[in-house]
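Figure 2 data, in text form.
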Amino acid sequence: MDKQVVETLKKNRDQYLKQMIEFLSIPSISSDSTRKADVRKAAEWLAEDLQKGGLENVQILETEGHPVVYADYLKAAGKPTVLCYGHYDVQPVDPIDKWNTDPFKPVIKDDIIFGRGTSDDKGQVFMLAKMAEAILEAKGELPVNIKFCFEGEEEIGSAHLDAFVDAHLDLLKADVLLVSDTTMLSMDQPAVSYALRGLCGLEVRLQGTKGDLHSGVYGGAVQNTLHAMVELLSTLHDTKGHVTVDGFYDQVKPLTDEERKTCEELSNDEALKKELDVDTLYGEEGYSSVARIWSRPTLELNGVFGGFQGEGLKTVIPSTATAKITCRLVPDQDPAIIGALLKKHLRAHLPVGVKLDVELMDHAEPFSMPVDHPALKAAHNALEEAFNTKAILSRQGGSVPIVNTFHDKLGLAPILMGFGLDSENFHAPNEHFHLRNFDRGMLALTAFLFDLPEQMK
């Protein structure tokens, strides 16, 4: 670890936290049209901070939606170029009454910072920016060439990022993609990820009678649309947690013995039950809990609704019912194929008396990379140095769609080195980020940049 950089990080810690609170205070909710000006304000804040930190060619680049913030520092002749990606937009804060503090007035308590975006992903975007700033302050130069691409639409599916990348291929050209939008395995167990699950989302709508009916007048003579939805959804799984859609597992590769062993060793079911406050875990039979999360595909109901939702009773037979479904997919599964298989299954099992409409929605390709890539070695070395323990080579249960975008369009090897924890309530009330991992993460990020040229020789 470079001593000058370490001292700079220590010296500037209080200043960095003050700046991070300022950044987090901007309500950059990309899905809320009334917050459009705030999303731009966050982009402007980030661009100004990068400029002050010594980065060059700082630009706010327009898309058809929210803008992309770009900056670079390209003075390390003959050294690799790292493209740093993150997103400055955040999730909505609902339900607001479940927050213990104002989500956009961050507070620090017991070395934990609370507020929307602290863990996902503004806190970690801030770390990427300060990584370069600290090295430049300490050394006057960077050990690699660096570029930043921070978008404002990740939480709404990065709808315009593919087009942005297509239009800026030369600008974004690099050797390695560095992403800090993933999690560690635990507080003291860092990980670098080599695989991500993909996503296939859909909305299922059933239409029964022309309108809601009085259950006393018509009950027993017509199909209840909610009953039909429950019957239809019950055909998607068996009692052992397997998805029963024909062809769903056809593209799934079996786990290697080493992968299965790693997942079993990392599974701590009692700790997970305690964390989630449940008496028992549930999932696909024959796999450990970590294997289910990292390495197996899933089909989840995200929402089922219809009929009367108010207080008390209303004796109606609902005319419509809706279900929202997402599948997490593993490498080699194609979201388009899975979507088609789901449509076919739903049509084949449709109960009588209702009409079916299926709309395919969000999708993302799964991703995996060779585990012997030299940039992964640099990430391992950096994490081990910063955390004083060996990093685990892991998969991730979630999806980061942009990884495929940058890999397919620019040929970039992605290094997924995040410092959040699964328990930090991102996408939920009381989101928070442990500042212990902010400190160690900053050390790891800077160490990665110093070691990368050696590993990439």
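Caption note: The chain has a mean pLDDT of 96.
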